[in-house]
Amino acid sequence: MRFWFTILPILFSPLISAQSSDNTSFSQVNSEYDELNPVVSPDGKLLFFTIANHPQNVGGKKDPGDIWFSILTDGQWTTPVHAGTLLNDKAYNAVAGFSADGSQLFLLGHYADPGKPLTQGISVSKNNGGGWSKPENISIPYFQNKSSILSGCVTPDRGIFVFAAETYGTHGVEDLYVTTNEDGRWTEAKNLGAKINTAFQELSPSLSADGKTLFFSSNGRKGKGSFDVYASTRLDESWTNWSEPVNLGGSINTEGRELFYRRYSDFAMFTTTKNSDGYGDIKLIRDPSPTPDSAKIISVDTVLAKVPVTDTAHANTITVHGKVTNAKTGEVIPARLNFISATLPKSVSATPGDGFVISLPATESYTIRIESVGFVSVIEQLDVHTYEMKELELNFKLQPIEIGTRVNLKSVLFERGTPKLLPESDPELDVVVSFLTSNPKIRIELAGHTDNRGVQSDNVKLSQQRVNKVKEYLVSKGVDAKRITGKGYGGARPIASNETEETRKLNRRVEFIIKKF
């Protein structure tokens, strides 16, 4: 059954004191499904959000997300109602924001017109007194998003749209961009720059009421979990000059995944996978600390990101050098290396003749992403934390993209004895997503392995469950399930001895093999 709704005659009222930082007032909203992108109407009485893979979505359980809504009644949000087929289709649907008077609803994505090709961007629906009108597509010059999901925020004055997309000039996968409405026309999108964007994913941006403070989630910084919420202050009108992003701390961020943070007058809403009913739940925190600048952000939690090193000439540094080679032939190849720490993203190129050399602060832990055209990208970890070592040689091998290439996903980890992925697996899995997105004709097989301890039939079952979990992650990021097969082999195919725990760890792994190219 599908539902349509009308705007109820509710007087303006802010969210009342019955709301709390726990999940009590959302008991009717959160479910076994994935709740995403909560947005509150200007009168504080309607909560719009997206539910992924709900059987009542337009596309059923395969639908990546439809818009639903709930009404605030006596301090509780009512049971969610599907927002109907005008605002929802089989694509991902979500709310970007409201106009200040609540008469316009901005939507993420374009809606198809019969006989016309589907374009990309945002849309607007207008309150006609009895409901919302059919969305009208808004044109943004050169708008493109290769990611399966568009996230972002339109400000109430209808003048600014900040969003996350994988498009022109990204520093990695999804980057944050801005476009502004000037005399009724939206400008070409501008990348927010390297201070905000990393080689990994930046998602779900929003702005403070004055448009100066940017809130966003990232898995490219050393946070508490897979995605943490950060804040940064815009220092001028260029949209590329920002204060150092600061982690919002333990009152928001956990070892889970925090996304879709939005700040209102005396509360903030976001989603988290920590202690959730299903995958992601909506949470509310009351009276969040004001954040016009980084110093006030720090008052939220005293244990935050380190102060970045801005003068490496006077800091303790280490020189890292080496070469990148073809794992099959040993030939030195050109490559791009991105060194990402909690405070310092840096890039360097490797040439066949000279390799690479880079100077880094010597008290950091780094994630290194190594990329080369025609080769499978990899991620490695580097934990320096030394004042004595001044020089370090690191050499990397990349697998060529060809049928039969086997890639060991060394950083894809699971809870012991279970198929549950650990949050630190996300960066390497996101590299696989990026690889498959960039090479749409490649098909892969996932292979799961355990050590030889225990009952072999149980090991085969566990390794198959882990393969299924990895496939589920890749598909959730937009990879076509038909491109991925998988099999669990248990302990039948060791790559190291099973005599010691140190070598048994090497046998507990997930790989992918290129089957078609």
Which key features would you list for this structure?
five-stranded antiparallel sheet; Immunoglobulin-like; Tachylectin-2, Chain A; 33% strand; globular; 60s Ribosomal Protein L30, Chain: A
Q: What is the structure about, briefly put?
A:
This protein is mainly β and 517 residues long. Helices cover 9% and strands 33% of the residues. The protein folds into 3 domains: 275 residues, Tachylectin-2, Chain A; 87 residues, Carboxypeptidase-like, regulatory domain (Immunoglobulin-like); 111 residues, 2-Layer Sandwich (60s Ribosomal Protein L30, Chain: A).
How much of the sequence lies in strands comes to 25-35%
Low-confidence stretches: 1-24, 290-315
Could you give a short account of the major beta sheet? Answer: 5 strands, antiparallel
Total domain modules: 3
CATH fold-type name of the largest domain: Tachylectin-2, Chain A
The radius of gyration computed from the alpha-carbon positions, rounded to a whole number of angstroms, is 24 Å
Average predicted local confidence, pLDDT: 82
CATH architecture of the largest domain: 5 Propeller
Number of helices: 4
Termini, distance in Å? 43 Å
**Overall body shape:** globular
Supply the helix-strand structural class: mainly beta
Percent range for helical residues? under 10%
How many β-strand stretches? Answer: 34
CATH class of the largest domain: Mainly Beta
